[in-house]
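A quick aside before the break. I want you to see a complete sequence-to-structure record at least once, exactly as it would be stored in a machine-readable document. Don't worry about memorizing anything.
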Amino acid sequence: MELRQLQYFVTVARHGSFTRAAELLHLSQPGVSAQIRQLERELGHQLLDRSGRTVRPTRVGEAVLPHARAALAAAAAARRAAQEFDGLRHGRVRLGTVAGAALTPPPALGVFPGLATALAAFRQEYPGIDFALAEDSTARMLGDLREGRLDLAVIGLPAAATGRESDDGWTALAGLALHPVLEVPLVALCPADHPLAATDGPLPVAALAGHALVSTPPGTGLRTALERALDEAGATPTVAVEAAAPPQLAELAAHGLGVAVLPDPGAAPGLLVRRLVEPVPRVRIALVWSAERPPEPPTAALLEHLRAAYPGP
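That is the input. The structure line, written in tokens, reads:
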């Protein structure tokens, strides 16, 4: 009995066709059929019923199938265990981040390393592992994770589902695993001569309605948090200018292009920081990866490192 025979048997049973199995295995149909017949002779039982249009496991085949799958899974695990030694000496991780994400919260929330600092510390421990870094929207990165174009991503966590067709809620995370990193309230940065800068105290989110706003593009965690807070307050946003990174938002607001809504940057020359309430908009950042396939050794090592560096809110 050979592992390849078990693989052929499992593939035919899954797809109900020798032809389809041969296509997926990049083999000839007669070759697949011959190997399965050899397996059946060795076991002394017919494993597949070939009498109908769809090939189905026999009763014996149904009994053998879970053992065949377990043997293949064990063999794959053994290969991964052996590959880990080489994988941690040489490898590459494709890491996506939302635009401007630095994984560095305001000082009031604690002292965390920036993303570049965390990656540099990891590189010292694993000098042979390289990174491919890309900035994109949360929505596109979720698709890239599912399709295997990214190994790990730093996303703005979608808000809770609203039931609308355009919703980017929790259902968007199906099939993915996540580790929450930060939860940061958003504030409004108003130019000193702006009408919203004329009063003291917290600023109700509804007061932003009718004013030009400066925010990140749709699909980013910061924009999602802003839109959800405005929706809860019964207000409609007027985003006049979009920019990728929080520092750009503050600079644009300082030049009078609108009110920027972003995590509190601390010192903001030329701008008045107003705390937002009713409700308090919060942007949530998380590490996300596929839950449907085990990460390669370099990705698993980086994930462990980042989870330790960013223990969560």
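Two observations worth writing down. The mean pLDDT is 83. Residues 59-87 form the longest helix (29 residues). We'll return to this after the break.
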